[in-house]
Amino acid sequence: MNPAFAVQPMSSALGPAWLHFFDHVAFADHPRWASCYCQFPSFDHDHQDWQASTAQDNRARACQRIASGQQTGAVALADGAVIGWCHAGAWTDCRIMDDAPEPLADRLGAITCFVVAPAWRGRGVATALLAQACAQLQAQGFEAVDAWADPVAADAAAMHTGPLSMFEAAGFVPLRQVDGRWLMRRPLKAG
User: Fold this and answer.
1) In this structure, which long-range contacts are made by residues 179-182, counting pairs with CB atoms below 8 Å and at least 24 apart in sequence?
2) Which of 33-42, 54-63, 79-88, 166-175 has the lowest mean pLDDT?
3) Predicted structure pTM score
4) What is the pLDDT of residues 77-120, one digit of tens each?
5) Contact yes or no for 149/124 (Cβ under 8 A)
6) How high is the pLDDT of residue 191?
7) 111 — phi, psi (to 5°)?
């Protein structure tokens, strides 16, 4: 672990720091995405219009999910401030997976996105978040974890699903390509 930052599971106690991160830091260099608040993965795309969902809507939804323990993932912290986030949870809770039928869905975790503060990129934050997310999903009893990897992201914003090389180094293998990204899987072994 990098001594300059620590990673841990998301919790309601981290809610204010997490919201500050998404309000002011996460997309400082890519304001077009600032309205997401990492709600896209769990949004009911079949019954609601994502394009009509405002930043206020998504922030309110994030607050509800944080308070109820449904905003799951890993958080990177430095000096008490959130510097990175990885959305990770049950495959069945990631509504963006709905278009890809999966017979093992109840036994799978899913990692859908990473956000790292601009000043902390390239310093191992995403790799540490990935390791923490996998450990959390394993502790929850999932047999394997799926993730989307971008083989040719043009910039940090496009890299939000994580680079292919990071997943390969962590033991993920490609399953199939969908919309230019690879669906990757890694077994989560007990013990």
Assistant:
1) 180/150, 180/151, 180/152, 181/148, 181/149, 181/150, 181/151, 182/148, 182/149, 182/150, 182/151
2) 33-42
3) 0.91
4) 999 999 999 999 998 887 665 566 788 888 999 999 999 999 99
5) no
6) 47
7) -115, 120
Pick the more confident residue, 52 or 2: 52
State the Cα–Cα distance between residues 79 and 29, nearest whole angstrom. 22
Percent of the chain with pLDDT over 90: 53
Mean pLDDT of the residues in the chain: 87
In this structure, what token pair is assigned to residue 9? Answer: 């599971």
16, 102, 134 from 144: Cα distances, Å: 31, 12, 9
Instruction: Spell out where 42-172 has E strands.
Output: 73-78, 81-90, 108-116, 144-149
Mean of pLDDT values over 63-79: 95
Q: Above 80 in pLDDT, residue 142?
A: yes
Give the CA count within 13 Å in the CB-facing half-sphere of 70.
Answer: 14
Q: What is the DSSP string of 25-41?
A: ITTTT-GGGTT-TT-GG
DSSP conformational letter for 21: I
**Contact assessment for residue 142 and residue 108, using Cβ atoms and an 8 Å cutoff:** yes
Cβ-proximal residues to 75 (8 Å cutoff; 6+ apart), any chain: 7, 8, 9, 10, 14, 17, 18, 82, 84, 85, 86, 129
- Measured CA to CA in angstroms, residue 120 lies from 5, 160, 187 at distances of 10, 14, 29
